[in-house]
Amino acid sequence: MTGRLSDYTTLTFDCYGTLIDWESGIWDAYQPLIMASGRDDLHRSAVLAAHARLESAQQAETPGVLYRDLLARVHLDLAQVYGLATTPEMDAAFGMSVARWPAFPDTADALRRLKKRYKLVILSNVDRAGFAASNRKLGVAFDAIYTAEDIGSYKPDPRNFDYLLAHLQSEHGVGHGDILHTAQSLFHDHVQARAFGLANVWIDRQGLSEGGGWGATAEVAERPEVDFLFPSMMAMAEAVEAEAGG
Predict the structure, then answer these.
(1) pLDDT band for position 63 (50/70/90)?
(2) Cα distances (angstroms) measured from residue 19 to each of 34, 42, 83, 139, 205
(3) Which of 71, 74, 66 is CA-nearest to residue 100?
(4) How many CB atoms lie under 10 A from the CB of residue 115?
(5) What residues are paired with 181 via a beta bridge?
(6) What's the whole-model pTM score?
(7) What's the CATH code of the domain at 113?
């Protein structure tokens, strides 16, 4: 399927992990819980891995729950896993932390450069309010935004990609072959992108292709194929510009 980056008109994005540094955001949001329990033996990699397991299981179990409420449940579950003392207020605060998760330093500039050549579309596992807060950090107006709240399920459920393809076709005249799906997560995005026959770009923020860890993303047993691989959004934007002759 690999061709040229310029073969496509539309970039569909995962947001969290690709454009927003959700691992730093999640880790920071767990600090009140960890500090209140005095657990200086809990390390980022272990907590993020536990979060990944708990969140993906909760998303599969309760696909219609708003992301902020789902995060609150995950916070409670993680506290129980590690024997930490939490409260409903702490759980709720964690659920609302999405608004504070930072964008990667290269994201806004890269998106503005890509916007000159592509339609930009979001397919995200959050609720509308959470993405609206993040969107203020991203520096561009997206041509379409589809969230788990709109769809009623969480990636990697195939319903999310069915929804994306149907709505892009009916609302924007964007066909299957026009789309280049751009994401960090193999679990949430690339397995299904390949299953749907979409061209795809792996933004390998974690360096997983070079032996890095899985972080806050659930593991997959077998890595799906990808058409393009870049370590960052800026590297992708520069490759697009180089292909187009600057």
Answers:
(1) very high
(2) 26, 27, 33, 11, 10
(3) 71
(4) 17
(5) 12, 200
(6) 0.94
(7) 3.40.50.1000
Total tally of structural domains belonging to the chain? 2
What's the one-letter identity of residue 68? R
Residue 29's domain comprises 22-100
DSSP secondary structure, 215-230, as one string: TTS---SSPPP-SEEE
CATH code of 54's domain: 1.10.150.750
Q: Look at residue 233 and tell me whether its pLDDT is greater than 60.
A: yes
d(Cα 27, Cα 88) in Å, to the nearest integer? 19
pLDDT digits (tens, 9 = 90+) for 103-133: 999 999 999 999 999 999 999 999 999 999 9
Q: Catalytic residue positions?
A: 14
- Tokens of residue 129, six digits: 């309010």
Q: What is the dihedral of CA 64, 70, 74, 77, to 10 degrees?
A: -70
